[in-house]
Amino acid sequence: MDVNKICRDELLKLANEKRIYLEGNILKVISANDGDSEFIEYLNICKNRDKDSRIKRLSVTKQVQKQNKELVAKQKETDSLMIELQNALDSAQKAEEEANKLREVAEKSKDKALEDLDLIQKKSQFKLIGTIVRVALFVILGVGILTTVMYAFAIVTDKETQIIGSTWSNMFGILLTNAFSIVGTIMGVKYASDKE
Amino acid sequence: MINSILLVDDEDLFHLVFEDACSILDITLSLEALNSSDEADKKFKQWFPDDPNHERPECVFVDLNIIGSSFDGIELIRKINSDYGNGCVIGIISSSDDNKEIEKAKAAGAQFWLVKSDDIEPRLEQFRNDYDGYLDKSNPFKVYK
Predict the structure, then answer these.
(1) How many angstroms separate the CA atoms of B72 and B104, rounded?
(2) N or C of chain A: less Cβ packing under 10 Å?
(3) Beta B2-8 vs B28-34: how paired, if at all?
(4) pLDDT by residue for chain A (196 residues), tens digit each?
């Protein structure tokens, strides 16, 4: 593209007085007339300045681009770490929940074991009571039988029955009174033992 | 020098890098950059069915993975080649050099694959030297690593 004399002079004036030069791709289409060494030199200066500024800008842009890529990579790394952290947190929460469940199960087992122990103790106590009641029954029955035999012997041998008769009567009364209580206790113990 | 280039890439910073590199290497005077394959598709759609003689870019560089687009660069190449008349030199510009993707791009009609990196200028220079072969379709598919 040719530039007329007025434009040429204005461009040179701008460059000389204010150091303002053309830049950009327009420089690649402007041509100077043969022999116009001043304008040829002006265009060369413009092209060199444009090239230098583009090289500088390219270098800066590349640097920024590189930094951006590094930042993006770091961001990805951070995101990945955050995901790992979140997963670890979730796992810890799950483990805590599991531990709580296990603790509940353990507490239930402990309660059950305590209940069983209490039951065994009660059972032993019931067995002991049963034994005592049985022994007491045998003692009462023994005394009753012995007194009856003695009373019968006194009647048969025509001996004095005044004392032994009242003793037998009292003993029989006590035996009848207590027998129901003893039988009731035995039945109660038996019922409790069977139930357990 | 290439008359006009269309760059389709989601990274704005790369637009600047590409523009400066092209200017320093005197590759083109006219460069347009778009951020998504949808925008590019819309433009080609306007040009092709309604106005097939509209001046379209002579060369198109498409990024492989264009974030924020409905389809990737390979699909855009396929569309441009099969739906919009295959009227330009077209290829992929990507930081990836995955052989599987390269083969897919080749099958879709890409003419070249240029690997993006910090030092893109030598590859663009090589591409500029091979460009005439792409224009007359005499050059085979090439990967610039």
Answers:
(1) 12
(2) N
(3) parallel
(4) 888 888 889 999 999 998 899 888 888 888 888 888 899 999 999 999 999 998 998 899 888 988 988 999 999 999 999 999 999 999 999 999 999 999 999 999 999 999 999 999 988 888 888 788 788 878 888 888 888 888 888 889 888 888 888 888 887 787 778 778 877 877 776 776 665 5
Which residues lie below 8 Å from residue A68, measured CB to CB, with a gap of 6+?
B13
Contacts of B104 (CB under 8 A, 6+ apart): B74
Quick one: DSSP state of residue B140?
Answer: P
Q: What tokens appear for A61 in the block?
A: 């842009």
End-to-end Cα distance, chain A: 116
If we measure between CA atoms, which residue out of B17, B141, B15, B143 comes closest to residue B81?
A: B141
Q: How many CB atoms lie within 10 A of CB B118?
A: 11
Separation in Å, CA of B98 to nearest CA in chain A: 19
Is pTM, for the whole model, over 0.80? no
Phi, psi (5° rounding) for residue A117? -60, -45
**Cβ pairs A/B, distance under 8 A:** 35
Whether residues A25 and B30 touch (CB distance < 8 A) is answered with yes
DSSP B50: I
Element (H, E) at A150: helix A37-156
> A65 vs B26: CB contact, 8 Å cut-off?
no
Distance (Å, whole) CA B89 – CA B70: 23
Nearest residue to A49 (alpha-carbon basis) of A75, A73, A27: A27
Tell me, yes or no, if B12 comes closer than 8 A to chain A by beta carbon.
Answer: no
